[in-house]
Structures are given as C-alpha cells and as structure tokens.
Amino acid sequence: MIQSKKRARQDDTFESGIPNKNFDFEKKCSVTLSNVNVYACLVCGRYFQGRGQSTMAFKHALQEDHHVFMNMDSLKAYCLPDGYEIIDFSLDDIKRVIRPRISEELIKKLDDGRSIIECKALNGTIFYPGFIGLNNIGNNGYINTVVQALIRVSDFRNYFLSDRTYDQIKQSSFVIPPTSSSSTSSSQEQLPITSSNQFILSSVYGELVRKMFNTANFKPHVSPHSFVQLIDILSQKRFPVNDHEMGVQRLGMNIGRGDDGGCY
Q1: What angle do CA 120, 125, 126 make, to 5 degrees?
Q2: In the chain, how many domains are there?
Q3: Which of 126, 150, 188, 242 is the most buried (most CB within 10 A)?
Q4: Where does the UBP-type domain lie (predicted)?
Q5: What would the DSSP string read from start to end of 165-183?
C-alpha cells in the first residue's frame, strides 16, 4: 500500500510537463543565490538549496505541493518532504539533457563531415547536433558567434566532447565565487586565471559544447547563460555581456588546457 501511494504521488508530479523546463541556466538557489547543494524542482524548474527540513527545497515542496527534486551534482532524484530517493528510468531523459555524454561513435561521424545526424525535439522540430541555435539572453549575440565558430575547429571541439577529458572532473570540489554586490568598472583587473578558475571555466564551457551536440535535447536550441555568467564572475565584470568591444578580449581568458600543457 505504501509503495503504491508513493508511485501515485510520483506519477502525479510527473504530469507537470518537465520537458518544458530549461536546465541551461546557472545552477544556484533562486532564494539564497547559493550554488552549493542545489536541487531542481522538476515541476516548476526552479532551483533550491538542500533538501533537509530547514532548506528552501523542503519549504517549496510544502508551500507549492511540488514533490520531485533532482540534485544538480549527483543527478539523484528525491521526493520531498518524504525524503526518499526516486528510482525511475523515466528520469534518464532529464539526466541526459542536464549532463549529456557524447559517444565516440558520434564524434567519429562529426569528423567524417559527410554524416548528417537528424534528431527530433519534443515539439517535433527537426534539429542537427552541432547546428543548433544559442539563445540571446541580453545582447550576447557576439559571444554566441564566437562559440559557434570555435566548435568548427575539430580538435578543439573533440577535446570538449570526449568523455576522457572529464574523467577526473569533480564538479562538486569547486565553488564558483559569488558575484560582488558592488558595481565594478570595465577597467578593473580580472581575477587571476588560477588552476581552479580555469578548471571551472573549462568544465562549464565543455558542458555548453556537449549540449550543443546532444542528440537527446528537449529543444532545438541551447542557452549559454551559465557560461556567460561565469565569465562575468571570474573576470569581476571586466567583460560585461552588453559590451561588444570586449568580445575579442574574452578569448584571452583560457577556456581549456590540453594534455600537452598548451592553452586553447
């Protein structure tokens, strides 16, 4: 009886239209603005911190009657306020959208240049991995152009698509520094490109590239929001989104480091 009750509650929650949710935005709590231990509400798509009784996710579950949450690091799903883990294969589609993995077979097809891979979004729109649009989230078209141009360089693209690049990645080991509440001028010096900062930037950029080549996307377009926000944070707003003249200088921030020690 208990299991059937839990199943019914879970199924009711899944009727909310999860495919309409956008998982491309910066993963931080919509209340506390923290990016530590963040869960996505799979009913409304908002991010909340934690799942204990005093957390924002727990309160949201009680106030809004939304009960299915997924941890953005582990990709484990939980029912709140009950607190039990949800094991259901129907969540795999969401996991593939949040953290796509590109097969070596697909990478070889991309290198071939003659194989056209046709995919279909949930609304029936046909799209081709690697040839999808990037959302304009505030006068950032020039950034989108740079990103689209870079993924046409096969070695550069494959570096960020390959699983081998991320074998040692532990995203939870790094915390993105919070945005300063005070305004900063464009002439302010950027944060030093330390190994940690460079690692974070490489990881977030790699996530964007893999989403652009993901054959399981819900939509035929991707938002670069997380990548754009991270550049603003790590550069202490030296490269504001709405300043087109800073577009080329953004490339000076190292996105990745190859096995030979050379910077991309």
Answers
A1: 55
A2: 2
A3: 150
A4: 6-105
A5: GGTT--GGG--PPPPPSS-
